[in-house]
Amino acid sequence: MFRSRPGRRGGRAAVLLAAATLMFTLGGCGVDPLTPQAARAESGDDGKAGGTPRRVDCERVKCIALTFDAGPGKDTPHLLDVLKEKQVPATFFLLGAKHVDRYPKVVRRIADEGHEVANHTWSHRILTDLEEKDVREELSRTQDAIGKITGRKPVLMRPPQGRTDSTVADVSRELGLAQVLWSITAKDYSTTDSALIRERVLTQAHRDGIILLHDIYDGTVPAVPGIIDELHRRGYTFVTVPELLAPGTARAGAVYRPEKD
Fold this sequence. Notes:
Elements: H1 9-16, E1 33-34, H2 36-42, E2 63-71, H3 76-86, E3 91-94, H4 96-100, H5 104-112, E4 116-119, H6 132-150, E5 156-157, H7 166-175, E6 178-180, E7 184-185, H8 194-204, E8 209-214, H9 220-233, E9 237-239, H10 241-245, E10 255-256
Parallel strand pairs: 1-10, 2-3, 2-8, 2-9, 3-4, 5-6, 6-10, 7-8
Helix pairs in contact: 3-9, 6-7, 8-9
């Protein structure tokens, strides 16, 4: 299995090749995925069970979550400018090596501007190929690096290629991390065509969906304004992943994956 970090363009594409096409093989590994609807239901109908406070009520509003993997990178500041202009929150699953450690000011800006900062491992190794101690190292090292910069350790993580198992779940639970997968992908590792990236996202968009994009690829950030504008036109409200689950709270170790309509 390819194990190197996605620090260069060719390596990134190889590492993330399966991210958009992978059939999640969670059955039989002791990890049962939960939907955003299930997370919201866990808090009780009155929303007073200690869950996440709601900025919007995704039971009443057509919500969708915009997420970015494998950054921050050189284009992330421009992406943050776009999100700020359009008043859209996002969730950033950050890589440690050559990303968090290279762009600490960008990490701090992501947090300061109200986006959710999350964990995407230190070096993008496939967690299901690793021993438990190495899974812990991949996650805890990024936890510590982000915590040092922002003053808050992440509560969400996304396993590379969406691959998880009971060992990954156990370590995630130990570190206070819920696992977040996705339901909408643009395969932006495979094209620099921003119009195509936009079309792929819009074709798959659905209520309570989680969009997977990567702010490290040249075609992605230019596609974001058009994606936001069209989804707004269709009546969607953008939320962070915790807001999508609110008033429920993401449970450490659990896996969250939306179901398409």
